[in-house]
Amino acid sequence: MDVDAVLALAPDKQVATSAARLAAPGNWSALGHDQHVLWGLCKGSGKKPYQVCVDLEDRGTKCTCPSRKFPCKHAVAVQVLHVRGGTSEAEPPEWVGEWLHKREVRKTPKPLDDSPEAVERRAAQREKTAEARDLAVQGGVAGLREWLADVARRGIAELAGRDRAWWEAIIRRMVDAQAPGLANALEDLAAVVFSGGVNWAERAADRIGGLHLLATLAANPPPELADVVRMRLGYTSTEQEALAQPAWTDRWVVLLRKDEDDGRVRTTRQWVWGRERREWVTVVRHAAGGAIAGPALPNGEFMGNLHPYPAGAPRRMAVGEREPSVKAQPIELSATWTDALAGLEPLLRKDPWQRLHPLACREIRLGEGLVAVDADGRALPVVDDVAADRALAIHGGQPFDAVGLWDGWSVRIGAAAAPGGALEVIS
Question: Which residues form the SWIM-type domain (predicted)?
């Protein structure tokens, strides 16, 4: 890794800037590293220096500072010093060894008592825990309905005057109710309001409508939406549970990717096209504690098994057995944006709360005002980012095939090709 790559590990620009300033030898003592771990003591505001260590295998970090950001500026700074050659090889001190030992213990599963009595006790405890959570979640949903009714009475415009503490109160209430899906949806709504812009009220209204629908259906969802409602409330399934499901065997084409970082967890999402099934699926990888998520699948095309999670459209998948990836071949694309958008209707019926959908169209061109114009002359707004610049640079203003992520307002181009050619990932 180089300095730029290390600074990219920071959860935000402020942490990266502070880390760059801290990465001076005068701020540190007892610096060292071995093959597996990096450590150092950094001057803080108190008498005792902060103890900082980094697992060099997965970039997990530990720091005794009070920061709630992961990794903190100290953990990033010590890594900057390391890549600059500012640490020497040494034997880890006792406090570093203790941290590594605790990490290893957490990774090592404890042997289970498999006696009939123990199995029965665990089953009873799981049932009791599940019932308690269901009650807590429904309490949170009731609180959300009251909150939404209050927002409706006061009007959406009033949201613009609310401070962060007001939003955090309802978000914490959903967290306490063990409904992280609702908490995340409220975080998203708050972000829309704080970002402002010409269409913030319309975007906020859209999200409030989604929350109202979810709160209305939560207690007694229709059978076809039961699993999706449960997922949107925040109930999760493990990768092991997904891998136990029958595989979807297909020739899969990896085409889109989106990286996210909320300051606690880094997430990499990929959208994959199944040739035989003729549908999109997603593969998601998370990493916490400063580690880098990275993609679960390389770009290209492969034959293999993906195993479905219970709900969602596009469906989330766990990666099973697969053959090595090869260069991707062309895939089927819609002739116009109208056809592409019409194809989203079945997905929205399966999961009305999904906000990101792959959208593919043949022979579009980027027009004035950064819009993607199809063969019929219909245009969709395009997100102004590096991928859009690359598409324009590669194709020189000429028509090209494209696949992007549609959020209901604009499309973020993720892969492009000359008309009829094999799509290449550009974001």
Answer: 50-83
